[in-house]
Design brief:
Layout (H helix, E strand, L loop, with lengths): L2 E5 L4 E6 L12 H13 L6 E6 L10 H5 L6 H19 L5 E5 L3 E2 L1 H7 L3 E5 L6 E2 L13 H9 L1 H9 L3 E2 L1 H7 L4 E3 L4 H11 L28 H16 L4 H13 L5 H15 L3 H19 L15 E4 L3 H12 L4 E4 L3 H20 L5 H8 L2 E4 L10 E4 L5 H11 L8 E4 L6 H5 L8 E6 L8 E6 L5 H13 L3 E6 L6 H17 L4 H9 L7 H8 L1 H13 L11 H12 L13 E4 L2 E4 L15 H22 L5 H12 L8 H8 L1 H15 L7 H9 L5
Parallel strand pairs: 2-3, 3-4, 4-6, 5-7, 6-9, 10-11, 10-13, 11-12, 13-14, 14-15, 16-17
Antiparallel strand pairs: 1-2, 7-8, 15-16, 18-19
């Protein structure tokens, strides 16, 4: 039975959810079983109370995303009625004349926490895997099972905002402190404590009345129209637009529901309004895109869809890192956080100790914020051994070289340290552009050599691009994948072609922006329009961040190595502009305070000297500028898929969002094509190609999918 029903000698009913499948979820089977259980409860005589719990490790996982992803505009009304039906049963549950306790034995997220909110009292088991919250906004959705309205009434507008507008998830202790739950107990105490509570409040009307049903109840912090909250709501709306560029409707709708719920309408009207806003959100492209990539795609990637399947899972027991600069120290921190002993080597002991000090600084911040104990910090720091002696890394089962991006330096480090690997150990080269096959050619065991492209800053960036050289074995790839998951990174496995996937693709959109400037477009307009596509920053600003000199140096190195042919450069004017800014105008990038922008303590302003490239009468339509920048990255991603640089669509979508700033609302560069429409996308590519060059021509893989009417999946 999916909902096990048991009444004990104290007249307390315990409903234990145990639906078919790995988790309890709000799928088609949920509502009939939920309604049946509440029907039975209402028919009970001499009832003292109700406990709602789960037989699974997860209390309740939330809505059925496969179902929500499939909703079309024609299905909105049916979804609305279904949601209203579920909420009607929740209202019956919370209006029972006896106390109802949520005994939260595992993660209660989304719909799971909404069930808990419909209970009078919430007790969570102290469990490291338990998270509590309403993360729907991170998938382009909103809490539509009563969560938006109930949490606003429970906590007030200001306190509810992080949980509703950001989708914050917290452990039981933080949930208790925030007012999301009432108690935290050990797992073996959970049901006993729930029963104790029920028996202790018999006859107490307050214990069986929800705050929003209590006469005279006032929302904490006051109503939305109060002098304190009105400017707060306006400020939140402005911040949302700054963050989403108006391209992600869910957070705006959540704020709208909160505003209505907090004093403009009564509780039940607010609930119905929430249902309507939720149902009409589901068929929108941003919602479908975010569900597809940030849930299903992320699960595929982290689950190992691109990992060689016939290799046993492994763990790195001892890690060596060569180079204690920015990348090396970030990798060290990530490994120490995962409990891996690290030997951090640099040319001098002082440099290695500075590298360790970076981890100490980050851990101290966690201690200061109460997110870690001093004892835990000290234990993690004890895992790191700084050294200037090569023999210290002997016996490591993985050595990561994180030295300067020069092939001769990397070769020298490999020659000195490879033989120090433990038997069966493997070597990782942290590089964003240098060919792994060529680097591995100097290795004694090239099959044990793999590229590990970390992103800066390593402690914050979640992606790890694993590069398979021509000789890299499946075992090495699998072990690299397992290491990435061990340090809580999301790994994509890519092929060894110039620029791999991320560097190659991010370069196209930055150079297209520079090309537009070289053609005479207003640089500030180009930068702002690229940002308004939903990218985290403008492309000229990003070029400054990456450093114009570095971009130019990498290109020159690739030309010298025979990896690039200048005669085949598709944006030669952009290359020339970047070269001139660096060589003739001494504008190497933001680090020097001079690039496309001038950077001062007061902020940044576009460099007036760029006026020399402006051409009167050359202005292009806004849409052409935005599409040129966006389509370049999308088309390069499709070519990577066509060439086998990418192993899967999920890798491309997830990698583009986590690593190279694809707009989140698109679901990634390949998913963008699906919701744009394949035929329409091909037609737009052909239009851009006829106006601006062959670099916009649709690749064969795109034309084939369009001809067959097959989405990329």
């Amino acid at each position: 039975m999916a909902f096990a029903y048991k009444k004990d000698a104290n007249d307390i009913v315990t409903v234990t959810m145990d639906m078919d499948g790995p988790v309890n979820a709000m799928n088609d089977a949920f509502l009939p079983q939920f309604r049946e259980a509440v029907d039975k409860i209402e028919a009970e005589d001499d009832l003292k109370g109700v406990i709602w719990t789960s037989a699974k490790e997860t209390f309740f996982a939330g809505g059925d995303l496969n179902m929500l992803k499939s909703i079309t505009p024609d299905g909105v009304e049916a979804l609305f009625e279904n949601v209203e039906g579920t909420k009607a049963v929740m209202r019956r549950l919370e209006k029972l004349p006896v106390p109802v306790v949520a005994a939260i034995n595992g993660a209660a997220l989304g719909g799971g926490y909404e069930i808990c909110l419909a209970c009078n009292y919430r007790i969570a088991a102290k469990n490291p895997k338990t998270k509590i919250g309403l993360p729907e906004v991170t998938l382009g959705l909103l809490p539509g099972g009563g969560g938006t309205v109930r949490l606003t009434w429970l906590l007030g507008l200001e306190a509810a905002m992080p949980f509703l507008l950001e989708g914050r998830q917290v452990n039981p202790q933080k949930a208790l402190a925030a007012g999301l739950i009432h108690e935290v107990v050990t797992p073996d105490q959970l049901l006993d404590r729930a029963k104790e509570y029920i028996l202790s409040v018999q006859g107490d009307e307050a214990a069986v009345t929800q705050p929003w049903d209590t006469k005279g109840y006032k929302i904490p912090g006051g109503p939305s129209a109060s002098p304190k909250n009105a400017p707060r709501i306006a400020g939140a709306a402005a911040m949302l637009f700054k963050k989403t560029k108006g391209l992600m409707p869910a957070p705006t709708r959540i704020l709208d529901i909160m505003t209505e719920a907090a004093g403009r309408v009564d509780f039940d009207t607010a609930q119905r309004y929430e249902s309507r806003r939720f149902a009409s959100l589901t068929p929108l492209a941003p919602t479908k895109n975010m569900i597809e990539t940030l849930f299903f795609g992320m699960n595929k990637v982290n689950g190992g869809a691109s990992r060689p399947q016939d290799v046993p899972r492994s763990k790195v027991e001892r890690l060596g890192i060569l180079g204690a600069g920015m990348m090396g120290q970030g990798i060290t921190y990530s490994a120490a956080m995962a409990g891996i002993p690290v030997v951090l080597k640099d040319m001098t002991l002082e440099a290695a100790e500075r590298g360790k000090a970076y981890t100490e600084m980050l851990l101290n911040k966690r201690v200061d914020k109460g997110r870690m104990t001093a004892e835990k910090r000290d234990a993690m720091l004890a895992l790191i051994t700084p050294t200037d002696k090569a023999e210290e890394v002997k016996g490591c089962d993985l050595i990561i070289e994180a030295v300067f991006e020069k092939i001769d330096i990397k070769n020298a480090v490999l020659a000195e340290h490879e033989e120090l690997l433990a038997d069966g150990g493997f070597w990782g080269s942290n590089t964003s552009t240098l060919p792994i096959t060529r680097l591995a050619g100097e290795a004694g065991k090239p099959e044990n050599f793999v590229g590990l492209h970390f992103f800066s800053p390593v402690d914050k960036m979640p992606l790890l691009e694993i590069i398979a050289g021509d000789m890299t074995s499946d075992e090495t790839l699998a072990r690299a994948f397992d290491f990435a998951r061990q340090i809580k990174k999301t790994p994509i496995i890519v092929g060894d072609k110039t620029g791999f996937y991320t560097s190659r693709t991010i370069g196209t959109k930055m150079l297209e922006a520079a090309q537009l400037v070289a053609e005479g477009q207003d640089p500030l307009r180009v930068d702002n329009l690229s940002r308004l596509t939903g990218m985290p920053t403008g492309m000229l600003s990003l070029l400054d961040e990456v450093q114009l000199k570095l971009v130019d140096d990498i290109y020159n190195t690739q030309v010298q190595m025979g990896l690039q042919d200048p005669t085949e450069e598709v944006t030669p004017e952009a290359r020339k502009l970047v070269r001139e800014l660096v060589a003739e105008h001494d504008r190497p990038g933001r680090a020097a305070g001079k690039g496309f922008y001038d950077y001062t303590a007061a902020g940044k302003e576009i460099w007036p000297g760029l006026a020399a490239w402006r051409k009167e009468g050359s202005d292009l339509p806004d849409q052409d500028i935005q599409d040129r920048i966006m389509f370049r990255a999308i088309l390069e991603t499709l070519r990577c898929l066509e060439e086998g640089v990418l192993r899967s669509v999920a890798d491309g979508n997830v990698g583009s969002i986590l690593g190279i700033g694809a707009p989140v609302h698109t679901g990634g560069y390949i998913q963008f094509v699906n919701t744009y429409g394949l035929d329409r996308f091909v037609a737009r590519c052909e239009e851009l190609s006829s106006k601006y060059g062959d670099r916009f021509a649709p690749p064969d893989i795109l034309k084939k999918h369009a001809a067959d009417q097959l989405e990329f999946c």
